[in-house]
Amino acid sequence: MARQDGELDPLWQDLDWAIGQMLIMGWDGTEVTPPIINLIENHHLGSIILTAKNLKSAEQTAALVQELQTIAHQAGHPHPLLIAVDQENGGVNSLFDEDYICQFPSAMGIAATGSPELAYNVAKATATEISAVGVNLILGPVLDVLTNARHQPLGVRTTGDDPQEASQYCIATINGYKDAGIATCGKHFPSYGNLDFLGSSLDMPIITQTLEELSLSALVPFRNAVAAGRLDAMFIGGCGIQNAGMKVTHACLSDQVVDDLLRNDLGFKGVAISECLEMQSLIQEYGVKGGTVMAVEAGNDLILLCRAHDVQLEAISGLKLGIENGIISKKRIYTSLRRVLKLKNTCTSWEKALNPPGLSLLSKIHPSHFALSQKAYDQSITVVRDKDSLLPLSENLLQGEELLLLTPLVKPLPASAATKSILEKGNGKLASLHEKWVHYERGTIMSGEGVFRELGKSLARIRNGKLLHTSYTANGLRPVHENLINRASAIIIVTADANRNMYQNGFTKHVATMCHMLRGTGQKKSLIVVAVSSPYDFAMERLIGTYVCTFDFTETAMASLVRALYGEFVPQGSMPGTMRKSKKTTKTRQQWLVENYERSRDEHGLNELLRTLARSSTPSLPYLSTTATSFELHDSNFEESHFVVRNSSTNMLYGFVATYFLKGVGIIGAIFVDPSKRNVSVGRSLHRRAMRALLQKPGINKVQLGLAYPGIFPGVSVDESGSIRSWFDNVGWDTQFPKRLANMIIEDLGSWAAPEGLLQSLQRANISFDLIRSMDNSESVLALVAAHSGPEIVELYRSALQDQHCGVVRAKAALDSVLGIVIICNKASHLSAYIPSLHAHGNQEVGGIIAPIVPATAQSSLVLQGLVFMGVRQNKSQKSAKSVLSWVPGETHELFSAMGFEVQQTFDEVVNSPEHWLHLS
């Protein structure tokens, strides 16, 4: 329960203190300055954003953060400062220290590995490192879907163009951050993945898609991340929205975006953080004071102002003026205050804030993190095409032949030794990520020298031979390039966002044409193009026969590239999103060996598979509270047969399917595939084996997809994606007429109250209730279940009646006829092993109200509500914190919503005739 205003610490009654908690600010410089001290001490600033311009090394960062926290502590702050950074990896890292902080691939590079588990491990490692220096909020992950890949500045900061794949990797990343103790912030809501840039740099980039279009693509990862329940904050973008249903100049200033779309439609309850209000377009249109008030009115809880002290003071003044003018209410301030304080309580404490472990911890974990970094980069390297089998170069380039490396002039990435060298020499000033967006750059400015010098040296070292290396620019193919191309037997061209820097595109195609002509004269001219940022540069350009992608050009990425080019490992990465899928559909489907599940051999592997799935899934797929034993019912009325696809050398499970046969019904009760082994027919092989086994059962009269007992896989998840349903359609299921079911929940049972008038209605209808806890008096119960539900529900009730921690509530009419029944239980019951919804995060007690059965009558709605009401009362009496209502028929949702339940998960159980599968029998 949120506390009332009067229950807050009295300190917060001073609105100056409360206002300070609604601001997140930064400054220029690597040392604490008088302006930032003034903000913390005199304006009670509660959150700091640190960027690359503040951070020199891990040691300096830890000392800087500790100093900031000490200032806040001595100034009487009740809670530590939120300290936020952008640490996305790839090209966006605020903190770089090659001795202590490991570099990992970009989000798209991680997606290219095909491993959500690797995404989790990298995220956890990244968060552990920045937590060690005192950071407690990471501005990530990027949840945007790159629906327009060619001209978008986000590029490899996203996972790609597939919303479901983006969801999977982003949730794995969120889980990694959270498990390392860092608060998370998804960005950039509602989407930076398909922006139109019109006019001058003062104009906002805009979203032109309709809300319906956004809902089907761009909003999917945001919705799934919110549903996963571990996203602490959401970063609201500074873009405009122009479509038939919405005219918004700045998303972060619009209540249609923040309060309506994010909070009401997506159900987000965390902290909303605005884009930096130092945007020139915003200042010109509204001024900082007006913009700050609008941002709070829109529903933002933290207002970001990056660097300018005079602007920051103006924003504070604007907030106070907004309160004085009655535009912003005291209630509105305290709503944001509570959200921010709740966030702080999840990720920091004074003991933690004042004593960051710093270098002692970083030194200890660096070797393992460095190995993880190399593994991640190696697995991300992607050979999109190699038509002429030019790779590895060690087999196709003789020692005496010359290799030419052609590289563009690019700015060094923030997380690189090249940038560090420039800054240390005083030859350049590094803009923060927010400054780059606020002062929008149409394309990357090609000004840096020497970024790829080490790449050339590494290539020369690994081949122990001559290397020719020169740069190319917007001046095109020059005589020096032509001379070198004529000399070389193999040419490597590096491109970096050639779609946005078109001179690279033209230069590369010119060289490709020249090599083609020279090969026609009998000369050896092997051409390899390497895209070191966006993989879309030449993804569809067949003129480029050998095309390799690295997804960023950090030193670590280039080291992996060199080893891949020379055959030290075989690159296994793949193109992200839809391009991966379209490529895989052209492959011949692999047939995997499917074996019977053996507990002694496979139990550990299945538990590992379930943990991997939990790290990359939303709660609608309840792997977190599931173990291998959850699939074994040990019920003599069930026939169970489970199957696996496994690596017989390592005992690692690639996939698992559980099947059950009960009274003529063959059931697939679970089917899982390791995320890194999807799209290679593991699932198809398992499904085919399972169906063949079921169809051979004598007396089978129907086949069912989804099972309520055990309820690990109650059906096709509606909350997940259309691609899951499509997969089942493609393997033969007719999913047109499913039985829709749901799990619903009361999150705070302590504050729940019965709907007004319900008890009186039950009394007027002469409906009474009793509770039975054994097989005595069970005949009427089991008869009702058998008449109105499937055989597995009969077994569920039979099991509940034999469990001392369960009971069955009966609704009865005046003449003792049974009107309906429902199971009441808790996680102490043996049923909880088979019902994941009875397990909550942490140690909270969860009460279960399971499988209500009420025959259709004029009173059935009232009977259903009465049964559930009695179940909730029973849960409360057993001190449960939450109450879960499981397997609710789709048409009855509204009845229970009116009682205070919220939908937790929705799924479709599908039943087909065995004749539908004659081709497999």
TrEMBL record:
<feature type="domain" description="Glycoside hydrolase family 3 N-terminal">
    <location>
        <begin position="19"/>
        <end position="343"/>
    </location>
</feature>
<dbReference type="InterPro" id="IPR036881">
    <property type="entry name" value="Glyco_hydro_3_C_sf"/>
</dbReference>
<keyword id="KW-0325">Glycoprotein</keyword>
<keyword id="KW-0326">Glycosidase</keyword>
<dbReference type="InterPro" id="IPR017853">
    <property type="entry name" value="GH"/>
</dbReference>
<dbReference type="Pfam" id="PF00933">
    <property type="entry name" value="Glyco_hydro_3"/>
</dbReference>
<dbReference type="InterPro" id="IPR036962">
    <property type="entry name" value="Glyco_hydro_3_N_sf"/>
</dbReference>
<dbReference type="GO" id="GO:0005975">
    <property type="term" value="P:carbohydrate metabolic process"/>
</dbReference>
<keyword id="KW-0378">Hydrolase</keyword>
<dbReference type="InterPro" id="IPR016181">
    <property type="entry name" value="Acyl_CoA_acyltransferase"/>
</dbReference>
<protein>
    <recommendedName>
        <fullName>Glycoside hydrolase family 3 N-terminal domain-containing protein</fullName>
    </recommendedName>
</protein>
<dbReference type="InterPro" id="IPR050226">
    <property type="entry name" value="NagZ_Beta-hexosaminidase"/>
</dbReference>
<dbReference type="GO" id="GO:0009254">
    <property type="term" value="P:peptidoglycan turnover"/>
</dbReference>
<dbReference type="InterPro" id="IPR001764">
    <property type="entry name" value="Glyco_hydro_3_N"/>
</dbReference>
<comment type="similarity">
    <text>Belongs to the glycosyl hydrolase 3 family.</text>
</comment>
<dbReference type="GO" id="GO:0004553">
    <property type="term" value="F:hydrolase activity, hydrolyzing O-glycosyl compounds"/>
</dbReference>
